[in-house]
Design goal:
Layout lengths: L1 E5 L8 E2 L7 E7 L7 E9 L5 E8 L15 E7 L5 E7 L5 E8 L5 E7 L12 E7 L5 E7 L5 E8 L5 E7 L12 E7 L5 E7 L5 E8 L5 E7 L12 E7 L5 E7 L5 E8 L5 E7 L14 E7 L5 E7 L5 E9 L4 E7 L14 E7 L5 E7 L5 E8 L5 E7 L3 E7 L14 E5 L6 E7 L5 E8 L4 E8 L5 E5 L6 E9 L2 E9 L2
Length: 507
């Protein structure tokens, strides 16, 4: 018996496995030789060839920085590395005014999409103040297109996701009165563009206060989960001060539901991912000790919250010490727990070894939000993490800045054995391997009748999640034609255990 499932990359979840308190695999500071140089990496991803692409903001030339393309007020810095961290190429992008990057993702053609804000006139007419930009480059860093979006005042794009049809939806913030739905202050801004950057719709969401979107993820029904910050007292369940604002946005840009997470203090910089069961996991920072949160350590703490698929808070936990601690990124671990990438300048509370004045801090929790381990990374000075990703060996790759001057990429070791066979009883084979269009999956389920099938990319993100009820020797056919060429895992889980098979997509 054969059954075919059409694969769509509708769920983008950060998933991975790392060993406890992972040691450093390699790290590199990127510096320039010109006067008053500076570099800071804002985001980093593992690429389909097993290397890494880091994006950030830079000034100056020489050393590890590009020797050309730099304009004095600061440009977007793009650095491609191999699996060992050696630079393959590095480039600046920008114009005569300030240009700042916020995020990067890889596209199915092997290229990349970058987002941010710019005051330059590049790729179109600047509409006034900062405009949000989306930049498309190919695998070698060559510009394919770049577009500016916004109105007469300041606008910026903070994050973007790709729809299965090739279009994109971005989120950020806008002050411009021309944006549909503008409220006259600073609004959360969400927009949809085509595969080539044509603006399809653009909407402002908010109330009388400050409202911003800082992350976006695609839900299983094709809608979007947006996390950010709001000071608007009219937002649902607003607690006071600034709260983390969580929204579900429909495919047409309408709010399906929205809620706030926090207390009477200040919560900010919300970032969210979606778990396999549809629940939402959020990180950020909090100074509250009431409302949704308790256990405050002093100053700001790292916040970890979980809601159901309607935004109802299931738990909210705080991690930190008596000084400032901020959650910068969140990922779902393969065991159902969570990784948090954070900044800390505390030397007490949950932090056991502050190395410098500010350290990168990695936290691993259980699915219930209980801390399983934590570790600081850095040197004697200031070491800041801005974001992180899971790597194909189950490790982590962190992007940030050292000593307020050097770009910093830190690779933590992983444990590849954790993604392989857990049960020798479960027999699974995939063919053809490599493949380009269809992947056949043959399973001998002589005892098990129910299970779950997932496809994970090399970053550990779940791209397909399917519950199965099968008879013996069910042969599945998966359409993987829209996967980027590269290596992937097919993971089967049953009551007999689980097994992962690696396969390659070639074109």
């Amino acid at each position: 018996m054969k059954k075919q499932f059409i694969f769509t990359a509708a769920i983008l979840l950060s998933v991975g496995t790392v060993i406890a308190q992972p040691p450093i695999h390699w790290e590199k500071a990127f510096y320039g030789t010109s006067t008053s140089y500076s570099a800071a990496y804002i985001d980093v991803i593992q690429t389909s060839d097993g290397g890494f692409l880091a994006v950030g903001n830079g000034k100056g030339t020489g050393g590890d920085l590009p020797n050309g393309g730099y304009l004095d007020k600061g440009d977007v810095l793009i650095t491609k590395m191999n699996a060992s961290g050696a630079t393959q190429w590095t480039k600046y992008w920008g114009g005569a005014q300030e240009d700042f990057v916020s995020s990067v993702l890889q596209t199915p053609d092997g290229g990349y999409i970058l987002t941010g804000r710019t005051k330059s006139t590049i790729g179109g007419t600047n509409n006034g103040g900062y405009d949000g930009f989306v930049l498309k480059i190919d695998a070698t860093g060559t510009i394919e297109w770049n577009k500016l979006y916004g109105g007469s005042l300041d606008d910026q794009i903070n994050a973007i996701c790709r729809n299965p049809d090739g279009s994109f939806v971005f989120v950020g913030k806008s002050k411009s009165p021309e944006i549909d739905g503008a409220h006259g202050n600073e609004d959360l801004w969400v927009g949809k563009i085509s595969e080539t950057g044509t603006l399809l719709w653009s909407k402002a969401k908010g109330y009388s206060g400050y409202d911003e979107g800082t992350s976006i993820a695609i839900a299983s029904d094709g809608s979007y989960i947006v996390a950010g910050t709001t000071t608007s007292t009219s937002a649902t369940n607003h607690h006071g001060g600034s709260d983390i604002w969580l929204l579900k946005i429909s495919t047409s840009g309408a709010i399906s539901w929205q809620t706030c997470i926090g207390g009477s203090g200040s919560e900010s910089f919300g970032k969210a991912i979606i778990a396999n069961d549809g629940s939402i996991i959020v990180t950020g920072s909090s100074t509250s000790n009431n409302g949704d949160v308790s256990g405050q350590h002093g100053d700001a703490d790292v916040l970890l919250a979980k809601t159901d698929n309607m935004g109802n808070v299931l738990f909210a936990k705080l991690f930190g010490g008596s000084d400032g601690d901020i959650g910068m990124g969140i990922a779902l671990a393969e065991d159902g727990g969570y990784f948090i990438g954070a900044r800390t300048k505390s030397s007490d509370g949950d932090i056991t070894n502050l190395i410098g004045s500010y350290d990168a801090w990695v936290i691993k929790t259980s699915s219930a939000g209980l801390m399983k381990w934590q570790k600081t990374y850095g040197g004697a000075g200031i070491d800041l993490i801005n974001n992180f990703s899971i790597t194909n060996d189950g490790g982590l790759i962190l992007a940030g800045q050292q000593t307020n001057k050097d770009g910093w990429i830190l690779k933590l070791k992983g444990n590849t054995t954790n993604i392989n066979d857990i049960s020798n009883e479960l027999k699974v084979s995939v063919y053809p391997n490599p493949t380009s269009q269809i992947l056949n999956v043959l399973m001998d389920w002589s005892q098990a009748k129910k299970g779950n099938l997932q496809i994970l990319d090399i970053n550990g993100r779940v791209l397909h999640n399917q519950s199965l009820e099968v008879s013996n020797n069910l042969d599945l056919q998966l359409d993987i034609s829209n996967l980027i060429p590269g290596s992937y895992y097919l993971k089967i889980s049953t009551e007999k255990g689980q097994k992962s098979n690696m396969f390659q997509v070639l074109r």
